[in-house]
Request: fold
Amino acid sequence: MAAAPRPDLLERLAAQTAEREHAQLLRRLRTIDHVDGPWLETGHQRLLSFCSNDYLGLAQHPQLIAALTRAARQAGVGSTSAHLICGHRTEHAELEEALAVWTGRERALLFSTGYMANLGVLQALLTRGDVCLQDKLNHACLLDGAKLSGAELKRYPHADVAAAARQLASSPDAAALLATDGVFSMDGDVAPLRELATLCANEHATLMVDDAHGLGVLGPHGAGSISAADLGQHEVPLLMATLGKALGCAGAFVAGPAALIEGLIQFARPYIYTTAMPPALAAAALEAVQLAQTEGWRRQKLAALIERFRRGASELGLPLANSTSAIQPLLLGSADAALAAAQSLEGQGLLVSAIRPPTVPQSQARLRITLSAAHEEAHVDRLLAALKTLHLPPSAA
Ligand SMILES: *Cc1c(COP(=O)(O)O)cnc(C)c1O
Reply:
């Protein structure tokens, strides 16, 4: 009997893409031709954007650009190698030192992206037989890191500390790591960090916080969600955050006890087997770290814009979420509704992203509105006026 024909991988992928298109869930790439603060130009259209993660408005700051170009003139563009070979430059070392001081940790270690940092931490720390507890709404790369590690992944319902406690209790003998977003990327709410820290202390589990959306925005001097919760390295030994959001650059870091960092240098494969980030980028990020700490007015302005948006949206009866962060989702339910709303806003000159499954759970499609210190009050008012024309439902479907 003839064997069944071997499936063709590219055909299978094309069929999956066609299926997604049929379900109206196809993702489309858009080229941005020009950026000027919150304004974007794309296809000869000028749009006011509410979808970047540049929360402090630093991405185009002249001091960052000056630091980047100065360092590039001295150091060149590429780092030419991995950190452990000859890619680790003074610019990287200075940035790591500044990040450790800012976040109140013994040491910090740079990674090329946040995705790689999370893969690296989880793969280095966890192995088969361990358990990894994660909030159901954690970022995709934390989930992927747990899968890569071989540990048993247990996902607890969003922010449900009692459920996490039950999951921990059901594996009393396994080494355990609990990982959570500090600020949830699609919902904007803050994790119950104090309760999670108490649980982890009582159960001898290690707590890890991914503060991609908290660093620079929350806490004294923008030190992040852990500082805002009045916790430190003792309660949260593992802090990961990115340089590509509030800091307006790219890359990421892990900060914590010296022994953790030393272990990651030895065992975190996404750290070891990759080219170090360009030193000029590290120099720009160092400038951003200093501005984020010293220019407190950026956080104050952002907070005032968030407050203005929430007050206006509430007066319009819009389906606001329980978020006081720069991430302000409007829950619309169906993917069609979210897409139609985003298209209508775009017709009015506003760019807001429609977030659909599988990025968020079924029937929780939404507009993900992000605010920035680069916005002005008039921008927020213009967004509210446009949202008013959409006749959105008052609560999620
Ligand atoms: C963006 C993000 C990451 C990934 O960081 P990159 O540097 O963009 O790879 C990780 N975790 C969370 C919560 C994020 O929002």
User: Anything to note?
Assistant: The pocket of pyridoxal-5'-phosphate is lined by residues 113-115, 118, 139, 141, 181, 185, 210, 212-213, 242, 244, 252 (CB under 6 Å).
